[in-house]
Specification:
Layout: E1 10-18, E2 29-34, E3 45-50, E4 55-65, E5 80-81, H1 89-101, H2 106-113, H3 116-119, E6 124-131, H4 144-155, E7 163-164, H5 165-171, H6 178-186, E8 190-197, H7 216-226, E9 234-240, H8 246-259, E10 263-267, H9 275-283, E11 290-293, H10 299-310, E12 316-319, E13 333-339, H11 356-367, E14 370-375, H12 380-387, E15 393-397, E16 408-413, H13 414-419, H14 431-442, E17 446-450, E18 459-461, E19 481-484, E20 492-495, E21 502-503, E22 517-519, H15 523-533, E23 543-546, H16 554-566, E24 571-574, E25 587-592, H17 606-618, E26 629-634, H18 640-646, H19 650-663, E27 671-679, H20 682-700, E28 706-719, E29 722-731, H21 734-746, E30 756-760
Parallel strand pairs: 9-14, 9-15, 10-12, 10-13, 11-12, 13-14, 16-26, 17-24, 17-25, 23-24, 25-26
Antiparallel strand pairs: 1-2, 1-4, 3-4, 3-5, 6-7, 6-8, 18-22, 19-20, 20-21, 27-29, 27-30, 28-29
Bound molecules: zinc ion (2 copies).
The site of one zinc ion has 8 residues, from loops.
Length: 766
């Protein structure tokens, strides 16, 4: 790395991107490098004085530079070098791409890439590592305990030496480290101080089952992708129905990569929610180091796992979205796998608003290795890339592995079902689903029931239509949701699902004084109804509700899955958390309470999401040999998306959806960015959005390939007291969109921060 030596006590100059939301061109601030710091390199994390008050601020060296044109007296020196080692060059390059593509300052992007636990160096301790000196001295007469130590140490395989002082004492059966210290004093052992990250053991249920044979389809794909492993970048879409054995394809490819000394990164939507995939992957590589990165780890564990990747000891990295930033040493990355690539959790919902799948493709390009995207219901973007643009190679696994059968999906008309009820109660479970549940429970099977809405009821209203009062959040344009909580004297509380604000349930309508009613559906209400209909199902015992209210972290969820595996839990009820990747042979019935919860949202991806949710949850059924049944309740039994999901016809769905997107000039036929302007004052918000839209139109200069839409209030026009107006940009090509966005950034029109959110390739439009 180029470093200048200046006899005046400085070693040249560097440009540092500080971890703040500073967005400026050219990027970074110039600092001098004092001699005592030694040479700095690109990627080093440092601390620099910032602003008039010289506030110590962390940042990264992004460039070596000279001070041409600057007054040397005004250049401040770098204060110190951070303990976090330099980022690999490829990761720095990836950060630059993210910063440009997703319109986020480079310093903020780099800050996202390094986990907080690493920056804070949680769990870092200094330990004494013991070894025998080489060459070993002549055997000398030592005390029995000291001889024990020497024998234990000599019996260790070379890979396990040097060994930590206290671990060695334990192995030698000693209660103190005295004998080892005396050997050190005599020079019969060597001791070196080393910094290590210590953390408690990460628990993981392992699954070591190796399938007896691969299907011809699996063999074909493994062969096809394996041929590309040494051939630089290539992108593959593995479209395999649920239960077709995609994970086994990943495992076989990873085996080849690690055998050749490479590293594989495997992304899963949220590993805490997909423990079975993790267990299989780790279980199948007992002789390799698998580093995991997910939200269920302690800070020290995260740091430790990250350090394992950085120092090159890990061969496989497994984790959620952010694992794509694993600091794999340059030149070692051999494969990236993105499982369930369609999953919405790959998109980060704060700056930088990156998509883990798209970043994975970019990282594979930089590393020159293949990337495999897998799904039973690929995102429309990936399907487009595979079948229209043909930039991804498409591999199909159209059949379930032998022994697994496709479940039968029955669509029932929810309105007709309700008419069959004679009492005046509200039933969320119609007669068809009720009978099927009774049959399944009687036959000893297990049931999965999906409702993608938590809480008890999402409307609290005045029963008098002429009054029309509806309880809304004070700070958001959204209704409050009623949650039961038996621990409270009132029996429940109201919560806004956008700003988390809580309130008490009013007894009477504030407008006319009538007693309020609650209606609408939520998982708690289904739970109550299930217990009423099936008294043998006891909440928290034989029936468990899984949603973000009832599960407080990965541990809760894992324990529920364990109890479901043993059969203690007969029915699992939950939100989309239960639609992902669960693999239990005794699930004989899957019920979808209401397939329409997403269909009417003002978002062009609503149908895609409905298709994915229904298909994915249906795929949880029939994994034990008998096909099983899926019952989908809907108010729109004839809607094409419901029909196609029931027929397991992804390709039919994707073809129709692509035609529709093309007709409406929507992604993936165009590229989109959404800019949301936020302000507590309505007038200021609207005005700022109008100025932004006008300036962007001016910049686009009437180019027909670029459209600026808006300003308009967002579908949820106010959240947490801030009004929201949006401007949407559409361009015929990604490059066209990028050119416009960079120009807007350079002119200071777009300033990501509290007052403005920029989302490139947005997936949520509310
Ligand atoms: Zn709110
Ligand atoms: Zn009223």
């Amino acid at each position: 790395m180029a470093t200048l030596f200046d006899p005046g006590g400085s070693r040249g100059f560097v440009r540092v991107a500080v971890e703040r939301g500073v967005d400026r061109y050219p990027e970074g601030l110039t600092y001098s490098v004092p001699s005592h710091l030694g040479p700095l390199a690109v990627g080093d994390r440092v601390r620099v004085p910032l602003g008039r008050t010289d506030t110590p601020t962390p940042g990264y060296v992004i460039e070596m530079c000279d001070a041409a044109g600057l007054d040397p007296a005004r250049i401040k020196p770098v204060s110190e070098r951070d303990a976090v080692g330099a980022l690999p060059g490829q990761l720095l390059e990836l950060a630059r791409w993210i910063s440009n593509y997703y319109c986020t300052p480079i310093g903020m992007t780099l800050s996202t890439i390094t986990p907080a636990a690493v920056k804070r160096q949680v769990g870092l301790v200094t330990r004494t590592m013991i070894d025998v000196p080489a060459p070993e001295g002549e055997p000398v007469c030592v005390a029995p305990k000291q001889r024990q130590v020497l024998e234990v140490l000599r019996s260790l395989p070379p890979a396990e030496r040097p060994i930590e002082l206290r671990t060695l004492a334990g192995l030698a059966g000693l209660r103190t480290t005295g004998p080892i210290r005396r050997l050190l004093d005599k020079g019969l052992l060597t001791g070196t101080r080393r910094s290590v990250v210590e953390a408690s053991w990460i628990e993981q249920a392992l699954d070591r089952t190796i399938p007896a044979t691969l299907t011809p389809g699996q063999q074909q794909i493994i062969g096809d992708v394996a041929r590309e492993l040494a051939a630089g970048f290539s992108a593959h879409l593995l479209f395999g129905v649920t239960g077709s054995g995609k994970t086994e394809v990943y495992i076989r490819l990873i085996e080849q990569v690690v055998a050749a000394g490479g590293v594989a990164i495997v992304l899963v939507p949220e590993i805490a929610l997909t423990p079975q995939t993790g267990g299989r992957l780790i279980g199948r590589f007992p002789r390799h180091r698998v580093a995991v990165q997910h939200s269920g780890l302690t800070a020290a564990q995260r740091h430790q796992q990250w350090a394992m990747v950085a120092d090159g000891t890990a061969d496989i990295v497994l984790g959620a979205r952010s694992a794509i930033f694993a600091p794999v040493p340059d030149g070692r990355l051999g494969l990236i796998v993105v499982d369930e690539e369609h999953d919405g959790s790959y998109k980060q919902d704060q700056a930088p608003r990156y998509h883990g799948r798209d970043v994975a493709v970019r990282r594979a390009q930089l590393a020159g290795c293949p990337v495999v995207l897998g799904s039973a219901t690929p995102s429309i973007e990936s399907w487009f890339n595979a079948t229209v643009r043909r930039s991804y190679r498409l591999h199909r696994l159209p059949e379930r592995v032998p022994g697994l059968r496709v479940p039968r999906v029955i669509v029932v008309d929810f309105a007709a079902e309700r008419r069959r009820r004679t009492d005046r109660r509200v039933h969320l479970i119609g007669p068809t689903l009720e009978t099927a549940t009774a049959d399944t429970l009687r036959a000893g099977g297990q049931v999965l029931m999906l409702l993608n809405r938590r809480g008890y009821a999402n409307y609290i209203a005045c029963p008098d239509h002429r009054c029309g009062w509806l309880m809304c959040c004070d700070d958001c344009d959204a209704t409050m949701v009623y949650h039961l909580d038996r621990r409270l004297p009132t029996g429940g509380y109201l919560q806004c699902h956008h700003c988390e604000a809580q309130q008490r349930l009013p007894r009477s309508c504030p407008a006319c004084g009538r007693n309020v009613t609650t209606f609408g559906l939520g998982t708690q209400r289904v739970e109550e109804e299930l217990h009423r209909k099936f008294p043998e199902l006891v909440a928290g015992d034989s029936m468990v509700r899984v949603d973000s209210d009832s599960m407080h972290g990965a541990r809760d969820f894992h324990s529920v899955l364990g109890r479901f595996a043993t059969g203690e839990i007969r029915l699992l009820l939950g939100t989309q958390m239960i639609a992902k990747g669960l693999d239990f042979p005794r699930i004989q019935l899957v019920g979808v309470i209401n397939a329409d919860t997403a269909i009417h949202l003002p978002d062009f991806r609503a149908t895609e999401r409905t298709f994915q949710l229904v298909s994915q949850v249906a795929g949880r059924c029939g994994r034990g040999g008998t096909p099983g049944r899926v019952i989908v309740q809907t108010f729109q039994p004839d809607a094409p998306v419901i029909r196609l999901a029931a027929d397991h016809d992804y390709e039919g769905f994707a073809t129709g959806e692509l035609a529709e997107r093309r007709r409406c000039e929507l992604p993936p036929y165009t590229r989109m960015a959404r800019i949301v302007v936020r302000d507590p004052d309505y007038g200021r918000c609207r005005e700022a959005a109008r100025r932004l839209a006008d300036s962007l139109r001016g910049l686009a200069g009437g180019t027909p390939s670029i459209r600026v839409r808006g300003p308009a209030p967002c579908p949820i026009a106010r959240i947490a007291g801030r009004h929201r107006h949006q401007v949407e940009l559409f361009a015929n090509t990604a490059a066209g969109l990028q050119t416009l966005l960079s120009a807007a950034r350079r002119d200071g029109l777009i300033r990501p921060g509290a007052a403005m959110a920029v989302d490139v390739d947005p997936i949520a439009l509310l």
